[in-house]
Amino acid sequence: MSAALRLGFLASHGGTSMRAIVGAIGDGTLPGRACMVVGNNRDAPALQFAETAGIPHRHISATTEGGEKAADLAICRAMQEAGAEWLVLSGYLRKIGPATLDRYRGRILNIHPALLPEFGGRGMYGRRVHEAVLASGETTSGITVHLVDGEYDHGPIVAQREVAVLPGDTVETLQQRIAAAEPAFFVEVLRSIAAGELILPPS
After folding, report:
1. DSSP strand E in the chain: where?
2. What pTM does this model have?
3. Active site residue: 112, 130, 146, 154, which one?
């Protein structure tokens, strides 16, 4: 029997994977609850989505809280008070602070548009990832869901899915194909975790 996942989300912009996960919860294909959405940009469409969907949401950043340490503590407190037991990063471009990392260690998940450990790290997001893949001459790219630690794109790998680099691919076509596959893959991974079919690596 699957266990319901109580999820908190962090997003910087649209939160595409978050929307798919919330949709899967809503249609009953993923046992869980969306407890809180935190965005570090006041005008992030992810926060607008949360408001429309009736999900508790907050804008928390170093600017709103007066510093990175205070923002980290505010995020951790907001997630705890909302009852979140897992954190999901959906296009969140800030490093997770130590208080949040400590409280949710081993239960913070991120999705990256390449096969880590290659093509990850600071500054490797969006089209930059796909530019690097194409420049390398690789014939395969893909998607990685990993646990989050104190470094960008560095935590233990949970699951990966390959996506072929096709002849004639541009940054735009590769990016679009991987972006189209990411949300369903994230839902699939969470469903496997909820069902106890996927055992997470130690973090």
Report:
1. 5-11, 32-39, 57-59, 86-89, 108-112, 140-147, 157-164
2. 0.95
3. 112
